[in-house]
Amino acid sequence: MHEGRKLLEEMNDRSREVFRRVVEGYLESGDPVGSRTLTRTMNEKVSAATIRNVMQDLEYMGLIGSPHASAGRVPTQMGLRMFVDGLLEVTAPSDQDREKISATLGGNSDDVGMMLDRIGSALSGVTKGASLVLAPKHEAPIKHIEFVSLTPERALVVLVFADGHVENRVFTPPVGQTPSSMREAANFMNALAEGKTLSELRRDVRDQISTRRQEIDALAHAMVESGLAVWSEEGDGPERLIVRGRANLLEETGQDDLELIRVLFDDLERKRDLADFLQLTEEGEGVRIFIGSENRLFSLSGSSLVVSPYMNADRKIIGAVGVIGPTRLNYGRIVPLVDYTAQLVGRMISDRTER
Which residues form the Heat-inducible transcription repressor HrcA C-terminal domain (predicted)? Predict the structure, then answer.
């Protein structure tokens, strides 16, 4: 970043303006920007030949490049990074955008996961990108657990915390469950649960099952394991990654890049590098922008990620909100929207914790 700002300072006004207009033109249209287009928009009257010379210098510096056989230029990843760090003009979110996101906080639902899901959908709709929301772990002591049969193939596990927070997850129960085996599984877990957090309960259940395997009905044992698994993640990372608006990415992607986007979707499904996703937000408050290979999770697809952490009442980072899109995202609009959404989520979670 420091090197990019130094390059900007060393440019003369004309070079800086040509560079800015190439990037802004590309971000707006997705098309290469040619010298003839720039002659009509420059602040000073200059010939197309003069602009071509400036563009050649910028290309030599590695800031812009020529895709295929086009006469126009597009910013490189290095150029986009420099633009974002030194020339990006950020505007405040419009009242309309803020209202669309704030409206998701309505209703009386105590399920934070459902509310974060709605916020993610709203952010995706407003930005026309794919949204990411990292839902925090809920580590309050557990009050009660219930299993509810929905269909032979689907069951609901309801987790009630001592602070009044309620979480519901649908999962696939083992074949052959009966109402009595479900009650037995719930009784087994409730006998262990009181005063324990979810991670403590998960550990105790595994210990109990291994030491008392002969005493626990096989179906109840399977029910406990499958029911708890819906909260289980690898390691001690965040509890859940909510992704919304994937179709938006496909609409913005050329045919040649579809396979790269599929790779991105696969990585998100497997939550690969999910711990890194939160860690990368912990290096400082506020919005961070990752372009292409700057973020390992999205390097193969060449996507950009705009992400901001959100905090609880103790100012501890507990999750993150982000938007993924092509590198030609409207950064000036999306950066403040991500910032606004992260602050909104942080306030919402802090308010619910203090109730």
Answer: 115-335
Ramachandran assignment for 72, one of left (phi > 0), alpha (psi -120 to 50 degrees), beta (any other): beta
Give the percent of the chain with pLDDT over 90. Answer: 17
**C-alpha neighbours within 13 Å on the C-beta side of residue 353:** 18
Q: At a CB cut-off of 8 Å and minimum separation 6, what does 189 contact?
A: 145, 201, 205, 224, 227, 228
Q: Give the sign of the dihedral formed by CA 262, CA 265, CA 266, CA 267.
A: positive
Residues 271 and 346 in one domain: yes
Who's near 77: CB < 8 A, 6+ residues apart? 291, 292, 293, 294, 327
Contact 136, 238 (CB under 8 A): yes
Strand partners, 322: 132, 307
Our CA angle for 284, 289, 293, nearest 5°, is 115
Tell me the residue type at 326.
P
Q: Which of 7-11, 12-16, 79-83 is predicted with the least confidence, judged by mean pLDDT?
A: 7-11
Same domain, 343 and 274: yes
CATH code at position 116: 3.30.450.40
pTM: 0.70
| 150 and 18 within one domain | no
pLDDT in tens, 200-247: 787 787 777 777 665 666 666 776 777 666 655 444 444 567 778 777
The DSSP secondary structure of 275-318, one letter per residue, reads: HHHHHTTTTSSS-EEEEGGGSGGGTTTT-EEEEEEEE-TTS-EE
Cβ burial of 43 (10 Å; 0-12, 13-18, 19+) is: exposed
